[in-house]
Specification:
- The complex is a heterodimer of chains A (about 60) and B (about 475).
- Chain A has about 60 residues and is mostly helical.
- Chain A has a domain of about 35 residues.
- Helix content of chain A is about 50%, strand content about 0%.
- The mean pLDDT of chain A is about 85.
- Chain B has a single domain, classed as Amidase signature (AS) domain (Amidase signature (AS) enzymes), CATH 3.90.1300.10.
- In chain B, strand 4 and strand 5 form a beta hairpin.
- Classes of the chains: A mainly alpha (about 60), B alpha/beta (about 475).
- Chains A and B meet through helix 1 and helix 2 of A and helix 9, helix 10 and helix 11 of B.
Chain lengths: ~60, ~475
Amino acid sequence: MLTSNTTDLLDEYVDAVAKVLGLPIDDAWKPAVRANLEQLLRLARLVDEFALPDGTEPASVFAA
Amino acid sequence: MSLQPDIALSPEQDDLSAAVIARAVTGRKLSALAATEAALARIARHDPILNCFTDVTAERARAKARAVDAAVAAGKNPGPLAGVPFAVKNLFDVQGLSTRAGSKINRELPPSPRDATLIERLEAAGAVLVGALNMGEYAYDFTGENVHDGPSRNPHDLTRMTGGSSGGSGGAVGGGLVPLALGSDTNGSIRVPSSFCGIFGLKPTYGRLSRARSFPFVASFDHLGPFARHVEDLALAYDAMQGPDVEDAACTIRVAEPVSGLLAQDIGGLRIAIAGGYFQKNLFPEAIEAVAQVAKALGATRTVEIPEAVRARAAGFVITAAEGASLHLDRLRRRPQDFEPVVRDRLLAGALIPAALVDRAQKFRRWYRARVLELFQSVDVIIAPATPCVAPKLGQASFVLDGVETPVRANIGIHTQPISFIGLPVVAVPVPLEPMPIGVQIIAAPWREDIALRVAYALEREGVAAAPRPRGL
């Protein structure tokens, strides 16, 4: 479960993951990227907190 | 070829339907070339204002039109869309054009060697491609605005948005430049421009129409579909485009299920309900009025609750950002400065989402799909607003939804996202309110486009749904 103080760590998280992925994020873009990520994590939290059975399959479409 | 003089198409006639044109061309009352020249003349006259077209394929169109006319003259069947001019969102491959997908970066791609499958199928049915259409960058957009090509403008009020991301498709059909256009819908990009521009749009079942040789956005949700001013035209185009295609991994192997012959079937036996809860919130009065008019015309009084729609939209949002970021990861590394800033910043954020959260969103999608399919055991059709409001002003950053100041760009699709999230077929029908039209979603169970189209056709025949003449031209 995502914790409510997750956003306090976001600046460090953005810098670290962007570096790992090789994504250049200009300082001028960081506030907007962070704001978008905060929104995404808030929405992801809504999904995360919804209990699903362990056997739930993802809704993939690929069929071999 | 001799032409009957009783239909004389002129550039002023912007209201001929695709069906009327095709019948006239087949019946030798109109040449495909004349229909094409008329469309090209309307584009030349109005597009400098509307900014819907990024490419006009005039010579190709004339050559195709002449071929259709030659087939008619030779006594051959020219196809159910004979001589019908159409245009496509510029994420469809058009032979000889770079598929820009609304971006600066992609216009450096080499020219496409072959048309998208859906273009090939429409042209095989006699239709005539006249150009490619403006769109929001990489389809990550609900506004129809574009910093590289400028915004497409709403044909009913030039100061307003067309809606996105298929903004040029909405404006070109709403403005009467062409009777038929194609677009894509990942989270609402067919239904939103249909609503704002006052036209009919079909987002088919996920997997129904081939996406081969179109530029993708979110593989899990991407759909292609038609826009038109009449339901009959949507059906003609849809029928011409159906069928399996091994070049799209998600395309169904179901055989084509034509709907054109079914449109006039009585809808009296259909169980029609209004979407409640989530879908009755975050609405301006005009959206409430439009749903009420449609519900009254259909005699719908029952309300059904689509469960967990808030979470469905949230999961759709997360998957969109993550899959979009995956698609563009290398471009984000190499050329981040060449993206539209609002698109780039959302994609960068999408690249940073932990994989486990994206997987949970896909698992939730499976759960939600099962619950919504249960609803369709007791209803055939669900009606819901297409957009919270009529077209906002170009550049408008926020609006007030249920008393809360909210960003426009991210929330225009608030009522469309929970539906495309599980690929349900939807016809967006225009309710011609004054001064601006607004759309309503007619939602059916998977693979039942026929039902949604029959209901839309009945609404059009009653005059409740109609594409108004362009008020801003």
